[in-house]
Amino acid sequence: MDKVVACAAEAVGDVRDGATLAVGGFGLSGVPQVLIEALYGLGVSGLSVVSNNCGANGSGLAVLLSAGRISRVTGSYIGANKEFARRYLGGELEVEMIPQGTLAERLRAGGCGIPAFYTPAGVGTQVADGGLPRRYDGQGAVVVASPPKEVRVFDGREYVLERGIRTDFALVRAARGDRHGNLVFNKAGRNFNPLAAMAGKVTVAEVEELVEPGGIDPDEVQLPGVFVQRVVALTPEQAAAKGVERRTVSARSARAEGRG
Fold this sequence. Notes:
Blueprint: H1 8-11, E1 20-23, H2 33-42, E2 47-50, H3 62-66, E3 70-75, H4 82-89, E4 94-97, H5 100-111, E5 116-119, H6 126-129, E6 133-136, E7 142-145, E8 151-154, E9 157-163, E10 167-178, E11 183-184, H7 193-199, E12 200-211, E13 230-233, H8 236-240
Parallel strand pairs: 1-2, 1-10, 2-3, 3-4, 10-12, 12-13
Antiparallel strand pairs: 5-9, 6-7, 8-9, 10-11
C-alpha cells in the first residue's frame, strides 16, 4: 500500500515515446512541474497530452512543447502561449480543441469507466458538425480536420456524443497526500487535477506535504488513493516554487498618496 517512490525521475521512468498523458493544472496553478521536468530529463518524445492548456511563461508543459517532445494536444485553451500557436499553425502539432466543460467530463467519464456520454455543448457548431482544424501544413492549409460526431435528440433537444478519455499516464499535483495515495488539493490548485488523475491508467502525484496514513481526515479526501499508483514527496523548495502568470499593480488612490 505504500505508494511513495524515491524521486520524480523514478516515478516517470517507464514513460515511453508516444505515450498518452493526462496532466493537471490550469495556467500555472496546480501544475505538476517537478514531474514534467523529470519527464523532460527522460528524453521521451512523440507524446500525446490531454490538459486544459499546454503550459505558460515557459513552464509546465511548455517545457516539453518547446523541446518538440509533444506531437498532439487535446485541450480547451491556447491562451497567450505563443509557442503553442506557432507550432500549431506551423504544422508541427496536432490539436483537438473542445469546450472546457466537455474536456472535464471526458476525463471524469474515462476514469469512471463510462465510454461515452451526450452533452448539449457544441451542438450546431463545428464541435459537433466537424471541420475544426486539427493540423495545418505550415502554409495555412488544413490537412487534418475534426470529424462529425453523432447527434441525437432527447426530450426535444439535440445532444452531441463525446467519448470518455483514458491515458497511459497521468501527472498531477496536490497540496497533501498520504502513502496510500489519498490526495487533498488547495483552492484553485484543485482544477483539473482530480479529473486527470482519474483518467490515467498509471497516475503519479507530486505532493507538497506527505503525511502518514490516517493523517488526512477521510472527509477531507478529495481524490481517493485507488486512483493513484505513485506518490512523490516534494522538497520544501520544490513545494514553494510557484510562478505567477501575470503580475499587475493597482493604481494608488489619491488619498493613499497623500493628496486626498
